[in-house]
């Protein structure tokens, strides 16, 4: 969480608004461009990005990116969480096996739809 007073925006599937407080706190007065990246003038970069995703909606963001990339991101994130899970090794391995099976199925469907 940021050191701010406003809560971070929470992107949903469909577009939604941010508060005027979030706008004032998280949206830069002027975007800067350096070496292919947008600069944020000292503002909270994650909060800015979450604001954009909140306004755009995750469904719309997904429409403009290959599904397989989202699956890769989910795989990376969930496997990292599983590695830090404080559980019996057998439980952790069982969860990893289930995750791998689910990701395999999702990948097949995504590759079919992305063609």
Written description of the protein model:
The protein is 60% helix and 5% strand. By secondary structure, the chain is mainly alpha-helical. β1 (32-34) and β2 (37-39) form a beta hairpin. The protein is extended, with a radius of gyration of 18 Å.
In short:
The protein is mostly helical. It has helices at residues 20-26, 45-56, 58-63, 67-84, 89-114; strands at residues 32-34, 37-39. It has two domains: 1-64, no CATH class; 67-114.
Keywords:
single chain; 115 residues; two-stranded antiparallel sheet
Number of domains: 2
* Major beta sheet summary: 2 strands, antiparallel
Query: C-alpha Rg, in Å?
Result: 18 Å
What is the rounded distance between the termini? 38 Å
Number of distinct helices: 5
Mean pLDDT rating: 90
Count every beta strand, where a strand is a DSSP E run of 2 or more residues: 2
Share of helix among residues?
55-70%
| Principal-axes shape call | extended
Strand order of the largest sheet: 1-2
Secondary-structure element pattern, one letter each: HEEHHHH
**Low-confidence sequence ranges:** none
Helix/strand structural class: mainly alpha
Question: Helices, strands, pairings?
Answer:
Elements lengths: L19 H7 L5 E3 L2 E3 L5 H12 L1 H6 L3 H18 L4 H26 L1
Antiparallel strand pairs: 1-2
């Amino acid at each position: 969480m940021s050191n701010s007073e406003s809560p971070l925006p929470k992107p949903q599937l469909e577009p939604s608004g941010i508060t005027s407080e979030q706008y004032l706190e998280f949206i830069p007065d002027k975007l800067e461009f350096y070496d292919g990246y947008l600069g944020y003038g000292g503002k909270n970069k994650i909060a800015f990005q979450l604001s954009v995703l909140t306004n755009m909606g995750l469904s719309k963001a997904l429409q403009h990116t290959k599904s397989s990339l989202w699956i890769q991101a989910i795989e990376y994130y969930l496997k990292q969480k599983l590695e830090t899970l404080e559980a019996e090794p057998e439980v952790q391995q069982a969860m990893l096996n289930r995750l791998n099976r689910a990701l395999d199925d999702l990948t097949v469907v995504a590759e079919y739809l992305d063609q």
